[in-house]
Structure formats: C-alpha cells, structure tokens
Amino acid sequence: MNILFAASEVAPFIKTGGLADVAGSLPQALAKAGHDVRVVLPLYEGIGEDWRSQMTYLQCYHIHLAWRNPYCGLFELKQDGVTYYFVDNEYYFRRASIYGHYDDGERFAYFSRAVVELPGHLDWRPDVIHCNDWQTALVPIYLLEERGRVPQLAGTKSVFTIHNIEYQGRYGRETLHDLFGLNDGYMNEHMLAYHGDVNLMKGAIYAADYVTTVSPSYAEELQYDFYAHGLAGVVADNRHKLRGILNGIDVEAYNPWKDKGLAKFYSAKQLQGKAKCKAALQQTCGLRENPDVPIIACISRLVKHKGFDLVASSIGAIMSMDVQMVVLGTGDWSYEEAFRHAQAHYPGRFAAHIAYSASLSSIIYGGADLFLMPSVAEPCGLSQMIAMRYGAVPVVRETGGLKDSVIPYNKFTGEGTGFSFANINAGEMETALREAVDLYQSDKKAWKALQIAGMTADFSWSKSAEQYLEIYGWVTGG
Hints:
Elements: E1 2-6, H1 18-32, E2 36-42, H2 49-52, E3 56-62, E4 71-79, E5 82-88, H3 90-93, H4 104-122, E6 128-132, H5 138-146, E7 157-162, E8 170-171, H6 175-178, E9 193-194, E10 197-199, H7 200-207, E11 210-213, H8 216-221, H9 225-228, H10 232-237, E12 242-244, H11 273-285, E13 295-299, H12 308-313, H13 315-319, E14 324-328, H14 333-345, E15 350-353, H15 358-367, E16 370-373, H16 383-389, E17 393-397, H17 400-405, E18 419-421, H18 426-442, H19 444-455, H20 461-476
Parallel strand pairs: 1-2, 1-6, 2-5, 6-7, 7-11, 11-12, 13-14, 13-16, 14-15, 16-17, 17-18
Antiparallel strand pairs: 3-4, 4-5, 8-10, 9-10
Helix pairs in contact: 1-20, 4-5, 5-7, 11-15, 16-19
C-alpha cells in the first residue's frame, strides 16, 4: 500500500509536542510492515544543518492557492525505510517558531495545497493520505476536487487524525475565497460553516473518508460538550467513520536498559539499578538522599487542563504523606509560583524545576517511584507510558489515553499497572496517591510486581500500526 503521511511537525526533525512523536514513529512502523510510506512536512528554519546536509533537492514548482501561485521547493531524505519530503518556502517557513504567527491560516493552507499537489509532480499514486490536526485539515477538502483533476489522486482516500480538538483552525468567513481558494458551496453546515466562520477541523471531519483520534476513550469523550470545544455534534454526526487508536511510544528510545542519561541501566529483569538512579535524582534535584521515601514526579506543561489546579491545592496534603516530590515544566505563572513556594517551604523534600530539560526528564523518569498525571483532558498522553517503561508507577485521572493505558491496581488480585481516580477532584487525587504510597511502604513485593507489569506492558507502535492498516484497507477496499 502507498501511504502519504502529512504533518506540521515530525520527530526527530522538528518537534513541539506529541504530534511530532506520532508522525516520527507511526510511519516507521507502517514501513516495517512492508508498505511504501512517505512523509511530508514543511522545511522550517528550525530544522538543523545536520538534517539539511542529508537532503537531496528534487524539483521546484508553483502551488495553486486561491489567486496566489507561490514557489514550492521539494527536498528528499530517506531514513529507516521511510521517504521524507520537505516543502521549502522561506516566506512561510523561515520563522523563529513554527506556530503562533498572524498568517498561520495562509501558511498551512499553502502546506495543504503542497501535500495535495505533491503526487502529481512525483508521478506517484498514494492509496491513502493520512492528515493530522488542523494544520492539514484542508487536505481532505482539497482532495475532494483534485481526485477528478489529477490522475495520481483518482483513487486516493483520506484519513484525518484529531490529536487535540482544542485547536481547530477557525477563521473569518472572508477567508473562504481569498485565503483558502474555496467556493461558497463549502460554506454549509456539513462542511466548513461554524457560527458564521470557517472551521477547518470541522470541514476535515466531514470531508475525510475516515476520522481517528489518539485513544478510544478520547473518541468517546469528543461526543460530549465538555471535551469537544464546540464540535461534539459534528463528531457525533460522523461517529460511523470514527475510531480511537491508542498511540504508542518508541520503546527503543525510551528504554532504561539503554538510556545513557541514567546513572545506571536497569530493566524489568534487573531492577537493582533503579535504586542508583533514585539516588542520582535526589542528588541532582537537591532532595534528601533517602532510598526509603517514595518520590512523586510531574513532568508537564503547567496549565489548567493538565490538572494543576488539583496539584497546587493539594501540596500540603501530599507532603503530609512523608514523600518527596519533583516537578519539571513551565506554564502558567500561578502554578510556577505555587511550586517555587513549595520548594522553599519543604526544603530537601520538594524540588521545582521551572524549565524544559530533556536530560533532566530522563533522570526523573529513571529515579521516580510515582508519576502523577491528574489531567482534566488528555487525548492520549505519552508521559504515563514512558513512566511505566521506567518503572515509575503512574497515578492518573481516568480520561482519554490515561484511562486506556493505565490499568487500576487491584489489591485483591495484584493486577494492574498504576492507580487512578475518576472525577476532577483534589480529594480523590489525594486518596489515589495515598493508596499508592501505602502500598510502596507496606508491601515491597506487590510494589515490585506493579512496576514490572508497567515495564513489560506493550506500548510499541506495532499494535497501533495494525489498526491503522485495517482502516486504510477499509477505506480503499483493499
């Protein structure tokens, strides 16, 4: 099968969040299954010379975007069985950051046109174009027309994945013609019209041949107003072609037996090294060196929808449990200040690192005993899977991918991979944490079994790839 995967960011070339991890790992898993997989992304300024030096220039041409015909340069790089195409246009992509510009609508409309016109210039026939989030939401819409104009797209189907429905690509009515080059026929309730505006994600949900989300529970949640940010009715209207597929992680990249950032390698079969990693975490973060006190960790953006209202209001209750805690991340000023204050109030027991640090996150995963994710909403989440891979037992709220990836501990059977709570409630979170801490302190054998269950859980991309291939086969009739 020929698969074209379109994303606004792809690891390891450029990354701001989880989308890049998916776009970096899923195509490789599909390629390993024997398919011709090609990935297209913008050639941003932030893509370094180490990658640029490996690219080959293919050709240039002009994109058709409304009344504009902007330049498009095409570069190629092959790696791990996947072909990567980089769309070059310095006017749109030579920016200090990849998002947050006044003309993002135009920039990603241009990219979407580049994606749709790519097969014609390469004389290559994709069976499926897999698009991701609002930045490529115009691809399924443009494909409706281009299927009849471009021979290479005659039988091409589209799959659209919602990674985070909060960001939808909403613009004024006037952008339909001038910016996106679409006629008035698309401005209807079963396409782009949304309270008088243009909503690109809404259009993609209707136009795509199939829609996926990044976890089964998130697919269900998006049919409720609390989670869907205004698109609950649209999602429910398209539930006949909707499916949630839990993301995986790169199990080789996140491997405590190979992670050179750790003080000592360890595995599910040889857990002894984790004690040295815990001591290294305590030394690095200024915590008292005590192997018997459980360390609770948070690595996250410090924002409300990640549940930090609950954490900030529960610091006193958490610290009364005779634990240590470390927080790594940046975000809202109020949370940053709450954690700085906690560090001053609980010296040697609470560490706040208000920063982004890949190296420190590795040390934290390796040394932590518990990993707290009390998210209000979490489409999939990768941190809980990474934590389990490193033997840090997760404590999560039952939402989205957290619900799908963490099996609650059963004290009667010993089954489970972590602890969970249902409601957005600080008391429930504290109860779940207390249960986890009590188990750590009272039953080392059960605790070790819980760690091993998480470390040996299958979070590889192979399972997810199989499910996506099933969808590709369904939409193409293959």
